[in-house]
Amino acid sequence: MPGRRKLIIVSNRGPVGYTLGHDGELAARRGGGGLVTALRSLVSHHDVTWIASVMSEGDRLMVERHDGHAWEERARDGSEYRLRLVWHPLQAYDWYYNVVANPVLWFAQHYLWDLAASPDWDHGLHNAWHNGYLAVNANFASAVLSELEREPDAAVFFHDYHLYVVPRLVRERAPQATLAHFVHIPWPQADYWRVLPEEIRRAVHEGMLANDVVGFHTERWRRNFLRSCEDIVEARVDYDASEVVHGGRRVAANARPISVDPPEFEELSESDAVLSEEATILSSRRDYLVLRVDRTDPSKNVVRGLRAYELFLEAHPELHGRVQMLALLDPSRQDIPEYAEYLAAIQRAARTVNDRFQQPGWVPLDLQIADNFAQSVAAYKQFDVLLVNAIFDGLNLVAKEAPLVNERDGVLVLSENTGVHEELGDWALTVNPFDVAGQAEAIFSALTMSAEERRRRIEAIRTTVREHDIGRWIADQLADLERADTGPMAAVEA
Predict the structure, then answer these.
(1) CB neighbour list of residue 194: distance below 8 Å, 6 or more residues apart
(2) Which one of 189, 371, 489, 493 is most buried, counting C-beta atoms within 10 A?
(3) Structure pTM?
(4) Do 300 and 230 belong to one domain?
């Protein structure tokens, strides 16, 4: 890991949130999400200020108590860092998050629209863009600039699709700052960006190109970024060097797949909470367990996965009563109509499977809608087949987490459109996410694979994940920042 340095991390969701107790005291709780987990070790090794959005009334009260400034917090391991939460007007934040960031940017970057029918851009989107997304990004930029005044040598590390405009706003006021931006979701091909109004797609690309370094999980997303910069904002691209020249600056684009902390995850798998959930699973498991662990997000392709399992049961009556699918789904963004409608579609698909095939004493599909990470880890240990069939995914950490702790030499069935396929595809059964018949066949192939082949595949996955762990991902990010500080990423002749 590179030497200790000053970092400003910027993300929509923070590492902790605050709740107001009955006694009037504010209590900190650890924030959720893979990003928070991934970046936690940065706090242990560097001087970190973390900037994020106010998410609750408790968060807002903390901001008031500190007059809008940062305060000292402690990570779980006792490491100190500074936390600054940014309050946004509720209407602006709703437009930013529930109108632009998720139904527009997320859908664009995961190819989720049925273009013959949607989207239809009206004045509502343009209003939400100007008075929501741009307004919230401007609030973040003000906070970053304030922290750079305090620590001019700090590097700024932006994360994800919520903050695309912030780097340009910061660059305009702090031209010498070192800025990096990591995108944790896919970057689509240039033509798909043209679904968005020109103002929005140009602002996204120009914001990203205000950084010194941009990062993606895969070579596939990196290549798409380079091409879209060329097509959308007429930037000059050096594909061999993976650099973009635009606005008098040279920007590096890198592929750095994120990972997990294997020792920590393996320790978690033996925790009391996980062992209790595992006992429940074992008490009712059949000969074979097909597992999926996802959010109820349209990009995760749950409905097609359930349809594939239905086709598998239709083709293999000899396995009725011997196999069960366990679908553990975390309800996602239910304030957004598209997500609420998709959850209902999942429930209808699950009912269809059980209505067709259930028998006395056997329910072929166990669908559980809950946020229960301990249960998910317990199920990781017990699967025979892990189905990850996302339409598109920036990476997909489930495909890395589950094999680490699995005790049955389970087989990974993996969509070719997940970012993690670039690393693990050689040892998974690859499927096309739209081919439900192919997914059904892959489930059967996984269940009938020889014990030796199953073991060879899962051991190769484990070796790869352990060698390319979260520590290596962070080290690569910091090395990229070091090169940005000392290399040719500064201003160039236009």
Answers:
(1) 201, 232
(2) 489
(3) 0.94
(4) no
